[in-house]
Amino acid sequence: MQVSPSPDLEYLPRLPQDKSIGIGCIGSGFIMADCHLVAYRNAGFNPVAIASRNRANSQAVADRHGIKTVYNTYQELLHDPKVEIVDIAVPPQLLLGIVKDAIKHAGRIKGILAQKPLGINFAEAQEIVRLCEEAGIALGVNQNMRYDQSIRACKDILDKGYLGKPVFASIDMRAIPHWMPWQKELGWATLRTMSIHHLDTFRFLFGDPQRVYASVAEDPRNAATFAHEDGIALYILEYENGFRASAWDDVWTGPAREGAESDIYIKWRVEGTEGIAKGNIGWPDYPLPVPSTLDFTTTQHAGWQRPRWKEVWFPDAFAGPMAQLMCAIEEDREPEISGKDNLKTMALVEACYRSFREHRAVAIDEILTGHNVPSIHH
Fold it and tell me: Which residues contact 155 (CB under 8 A, 6 or more apart)?
């Protein structure tokens, strides 16, 4: 196959024609204040109101981003006639209750963008999807790594056939997240907060795997004060066509907070029959704006192609999940990152938990159908 790789790749989200639809923001933490609203402002979207558990925080965020209306409670915000999309960025254990209140205003409220993870487990995610479907509200999920510029461009390379048939892909994360209080309350470390990005990205790039094998270990830095199972998570995805993907999600990364030099990064790699693509994700350097990178080479062209962009994952990629929801409402279709599609990502996360607890590979259909799927031995 003759192809002509070009650095002019499709890496930005498609934007709606009408950007004036009113967005009501629930939550005033870092993700809303420093990511969602910065990206929305740059994209020309229209946040019209905000509410959170802390009125003072809401007011400060509203003043910073030029939002005219601040409510004491999210319930008051849901009654605002200007609000047609609800953007929810709260701890996951609060999500279902807010969705139940939001669907009471179906008709005027046309869409909900929910932060990932979609609830505290797969069953709760199913309930959220069911409620929105029955209410006729478009549900999108903020799986924003799909809109990291390097990941988006990699998808374009794959779709154009530059790499041939995918053979193997990997993500290697050595990064120390900022642990949120709600994570400690829930006993969550890596799988539902960091790995969920990588699992969803594998699905975005390559489709749905058949099964996953996961192994985990504690993060020794937080073991004494933060009860968790999945500090360091390793997992392998098996696909029916023979393709394999794996990730090493290491939030320990050595004693980088205890006096040693740090070696922080997120790297990804895709190998195909006709080419290789590899990149770095710039997020660990936040707040320094370091764009993610992509390099690729093919059998048809000598040398490495190295397209570069000025946009960064945090905050620029956060325009994408809202844009795809707005486009879906505008065009009366399912969102690209719909709640229904995201159930497969939630099932994949759940399968990782079952895998490491039962020390076996787990078929994703076990979670989706609720029935054990026997392993196939050749």
Answer: 204, 205
CA atoms within 13 A on the CB side of 303: 6
What is the homologous superfamily of the domain 22-144+319-338 according to CATH?
NAD(P)-binding Rossmann-like Domain (3.40.50.720)
pLDDT at 7 over 80: no
Strand 46-51, strand 69-71: pairing: parallel
Q: Is the pLDDT of residue 1 over 50?
A: no
CA atoms of 342 and 339, how far apart (whole Å):
5
Secondary structure of the chain in HEC code, one letter for each residue: CCCCCCCCCCCCCCCCCCCCCEEEEECCCHHHHHHHHHHHHHHCCEEEEEECCCHHHHHHHHHHHCCCEEECCHHHHHCCCCCCEEEECCCHHHHHHHHHHHHHHECCECEEEEECCCCCCHHHHHHHHHHHHHHCCEEEEECHHHHCHHHHHHHHHHHCCCCCCEEEEEEEEECCCCCCHHHHHHCCCCHHHHHHHHHHHHHHHHCCCCEEEEEEECCCCCCCCCCCCCCEEEEEEECCCCCEEEEEEECCCCCCCCCCCCCCEEEEEEEECCEEEEEECCHHHCCCCCCCEEEEEECCEEEEECCCCCCCCCCHHHHHHHHHHHHHHHHCCCCCCEHHHHHHHHHHHHHHHHHHHHCCCEEHHHHHHCCCCCCCCC
Q: Inter-axis angle of helices 196-206 and 149-159, to 10 degrees? A: 20
| Residues 224-274 pLDDT 10s | 888 999 999 999 999 999 999 999 999 999 999 999 999 999 999 999 999
Tell the CATH superfamily of the 146-313+346-363 domain.
Dihydrodipicolinate Reductase; domain 2 (3.30.360.10)
Q: What are phi and psi of 26, to 5 degrees?
A: -115, 115
pLDDT tens digits, 283-295: 999 999 999 999 9
